[in-house]
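Please review this one.

:::
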Amino acid sequence: MANNDMNYIQIAIYSPGGLIYNHRGLGCKLQTEEGGLSILPHHVPVIVSLDIGAVVVKRLDGDPDYIAVDGGVATFENNTLTIMATYAIRARDIDTAKVEIEKQNAQAAMFDAQQQDDLSAYRRAKVELSRAINQINVSRQRRQQG
């Protein structure tokens, strides 16, 4: 278990499929429903709801790791950050061609829902579009860094 004498944090990210990420880092940035949040060693304990967005971990070597999450909950206590995401994928594992197709399908579904005046279907398609755009952006961020 982490203790308060460490100059790093332990980051674990889970999604329904299991553990996605488990490493030490110098810090972590994440997108909450209230806005951006940076977590550094010795941060006060927090529990926050996550929005669709990127989790960026600054590794011990200073390089970043990027993980796309589709919402969830993050807790931080005793220099341990635990993220329980509704969906999470590391940038290196994103199939951008597949996600581009998902983006196009979501755009088409939004158009169809709008034409049929189906607000519920429109909202679902809009969330799917946001998820696809998030994965594309996270994948791009990683490529630009490396």
Notes: Residues 119-145 form the longest helix (27 residues). DSSP finds two helices and seven strands in the chain. Helices lie at 96-115, 119-145. The mean pLDDT is 93.
